[in-house]
Amino acid sequence: MPYRSNEVDERNKWTTRFKYFLYFFNVVSLVLAIVVMTMAIYIRADWTIKHYIYELEAYLMWTGPYILMASCSFTIVISALGCWATVYENPFLLTAFTMATGATALIGLGGVAYSLNHGITFSDITPWLTDRFTYLVFESDTDPRSARIVRIMQEELGCCGGSGWQDYANYNMEIPYECRNPVTGNMYVYGCGIIFSDFMEPLVAWMSGIALLLIVLQIMAMVAAMILRRNFKREDKLISGHQKSATYTAVRSRNI
């Protein structure tokens, strides 16, 4: 049995701890990636959301979820790579895992930033939606399709015009019945631009928040992987040095 010093044993303890940490990070990252991907797919595939986005031609609201889908797909594969590298204690695979995780985290961060900037209230999407809906209100007087879109969204979302009922007044148009609450008969105060942003905000915010947590875990996993890689290399050097020392001592004993 090869000689093992206290230093090697102590390093083995720390290495084992970091291995367990890395296992934990990879498993949690895998679960979070699946959750984020599921939410992104839901935003893309849900019929109600899809119907609104198609009618408004607000396809930029899907860009963030698309980026996060790609990031999560990479994360699922990389998590398996991280577990494999940890089991085999391979410094090269750990380096590859660290670099791939860093690239994936950057992609995910871009997806989070874009989603938050184009999917929640008072983000860049709100004035875009307001202008788009105001344009549809203007066209609704002559275009049956625009009139249908405006009626449906005002009735289902509980809003009026792009920025409010004033849009109809500005174009000298009659304020439609859909701009009123069917129970109280009161006029809806808010326009459909901000209301649709409110409608999308919970989904986008939860998706982005979980994705941001995933990115934090990925950064921690990168640090753990680099420390583990360093420990593996140092352990190999220490064990190799002790084996050489033991061999040298044995040879000298025979010669004596």
Automatic annotation (TrEMBL):
SUPFAM superfamilies: Tetraspanin. Gene3D superfamilies: Tetraspanin. InterPro entries: Tetraspanin/Peripherin, Tetraspanin_animals, Tetraspanin_EC2_sf. Keywords: Disulfide bond, Membrane, Transmembrane, Transmembrane helix. GO terms for cellular component: plasma membrane. The keyword DNA repair does not apply. It is a multi-pass membrane protein. Pfam families: Tetraspanin (PF00335). CDD domains: tetraspanin_LEL. The chain crosses the membrane at residues 20-43, 63-85, 92-114, 203-228. Disulfide bonds join 159-192, 160-179. It is found in: Membrane. PANTHER family: TETRASPANIN, TETRASPANIN FAMILY-RELATED. Belongs to the tetraspanin (TM4SF) family. This is Tetraspanin.
